Amino acid sequence: MTRDTRWGRRRWLVGGGALLLAGWAGGLAAQPGAARGEAAIRLALIEGLSGPMGNAGEAVFRNLVWAAERVNARGGIEVAPGVRRPLQIVRYDSKGQPQEALSALQSALDDGITLVAQGNSSAVAAALIEAINRHNEREPQRQVLFLNYSAVDPVLTNERCSFWHFRFDAHADMRMAALMGVLKADPSVRSVYLIGQDYSFGQAVLREARRQLALQRPDVRIVGEELHPMARIKDFLPYVTKIKASGAQAVITGNWGNDLTLLVRAAREGGFDGKFYTFYGNALGAPAAIGEAGVGRVIAVADWFPNAPDAESRRFYEAFRQRFPNPADDYVHMRMQLMIEALAQAIERAARAARAAPGGAAGPSAVAIARALEQADVTLAGQRLRMRADDHQAQQPLMVAVMERQGAPGVPFDVEGSGFGFRVLQRLDAAAAEQPHTCRMVRP
Asked: What is the 8-class DSSP label of residue 363?
């Protein structure tokens, strides 16, 4: 029985003294029992917190908890002169399924919450965007904002962009371009195998891999390409057998969660000695699964790595590990911390604008908070994120790193107690990582 089964669909977390309270139009208001009349600003986390991808959901939860605690430690979010509200994260288990996520969204709405966060699965994100668009048109008095920290299918901020949706992760094409910058400079790779999860994100990764290879490494042969069911494969050894038989010198994959861990474990057991160019090879069990076989061969792209070569990053990561000392609770996401900082900034900015408006004092609307989020510009531990208003795609630096033994030059920290960490090979500033978009934003 999972924790979420024991506690029901929802769990409430008290972070930094936050109170278990309800929300007005932007997520604020008091319920009976609030000490000193304080009210929390509540953010609903709709995520797969059980099932085969539950470890990824729990990692998100820890990150958002820590980010909320930091906001609350400085007094919370200022909603009026001298009035600050704590931030509260509320869990809703979607089991990683679109229909369950829609049910969780309705539960959050029934609970009076109108700030929603989700990210693990672009298919779920697409369903939430569509449902939130419909809801906001039907019920303009309680409109919902959607903060996306990991769903990276490019269409979500291109053809399917929405005024109510903000993405804080680099999308798949941005990540692939960063990976290709490293592969382009690697003459040892002359043949690759493409493998991914069979849904919108996995399909987008393989499509962009083909396009980028043709542009940047036309000499590299694609010797195999495969999509597999998501979160349903228990043994990847048959796939690894095909990869080895193809003669591939490298694998390119966007797999995440157990689908990545089981793939790299099978590669180790099956004796595949090629490289892995990954989106998420730096955590959630992958380094421990591949072990020594991954040293110098598993490459990952992210917005940030714990071994980023600067003192601010080191202090930031050490603070996270102090808060979550269990190695199994590793995997800190800088973008999630920046997302919460951007939300706090936007609510405060919108509240000030509401007070300054004729007849002010009413709380800011979801539209006002969204417009403030369009101007988000936040920095934490030396990492800056700004929101591009045209398509609601966050712009931030990207890093590419390679797996090494902890203690090797540039690798003071390992991942999840595995003894292996990631050494940064390349850092792209936000301008270099930025890509054009096709969004035609419809604003209220």
From this structure: P
Say whether both 250 and 193 belong to one domain: yes
- Non-local (6+) Cβ contacts of 41 within 8 A are 23, 26, 27, 28, 76, 77, 79, 85, 86, 87, 88, 115, 347
Q: Residue 285 contacts by C-beta under 8 Å, 6 or more apart in sequence?
A: 55, 258, 261, 416
The tokens describing 369, both together, are 């908070």
| Widest distance between CA atoms in the chain | 72
Q: What is the rounded CA–CA span in Å between residue 283 and residue 422? A: 10
Residue 358, classified by CB atoms within 10 Å of its CB into exposed (0-12), middle (13-18) or buried (19+), is exposed
Q: Please, where are the H alpha helices in 155-220?
A: 172-183, 200-216
pLDDT tops 90 at residue 363 = no
pLDDT in tens, 219-242: 999 999 999 999 999 999 999 999
Mean pLDDT of the region 47-72: 96
Give the range of the structural domain holding residue 165, as residue numbers without chain letter.
Answer: 3-170+321-395
Asked, for residue 316, whether it belongs to a domain, the answer is no
- Cα–Cα–Cα angle for 310, 328, 399, nearest 5°? 30
Q: Which parts of 114-159 are beta strand (E)? A: 115-118, 145-148
Q: Is residue 391 located within the same domain as residue 402? A: no
Nearest-angstrom CA–CA distance, 423 and 282? 10
Name the token pair of 79.
């909603």
Q: How far apart are CA 242 and CA 240, in angstroms?
A: 5
pLDDT by residue (tens digit) across 290-339? 889 899 999 999 999 999 999 999 999 999 999 999 999 999 999 999 99
Q: What is the distance between the alpha carbons of residues 245 and 268, in angstroms, rounded to a whole number?
A: 15
Label the pairing between strands 383-388 and 377-380.
antiparallel
Question: What's the full length of the chain, in residues?
Answer: 444
Assess whether 415 and 356 both reside in one domain: no
